[in-house]
Write a structure and sequence with these properties.
By secondary structure, the protein is mainly α. Helix content is 62%, strand content 0%. It has three helices and no strands. The longest helix has 24 residues.
Length: 69
């Protein structure tokens, strides 16, 4: 029998809480899964935006400090 979603068949040792995570590993989409879960979480989204702002601010600081502008 063919499994259309490419996930392993359920077994007795199936952990209910990790089913989506297990499917992500089986489909080799772990990075996309991590980004989507982080973006869905309000604190994760805030941390991601803050990290991006800090990286851009640091890049602007380096450009101005080194006189590249």
């Amino acid at each position: 029998m063919t499994n259309p979603d490419n996930s392993p068949p359920p077994s007795k040792e199936d952990w209910q809480g990790f089913r989506e995570f297990d499917r992500a590993i089986a489909e080799n989409r772990l990075t996309a899964y991590s980004w989507k879960k982080t973006w869905a979480d309000p604190w994760g989204r805030a941390a991601t935006i803050l990290f991006g702002v800090l990286v851009v601010a640091f890049a602007i600081y380096v450009v101005i400090y080194d006189g590249l502008l």
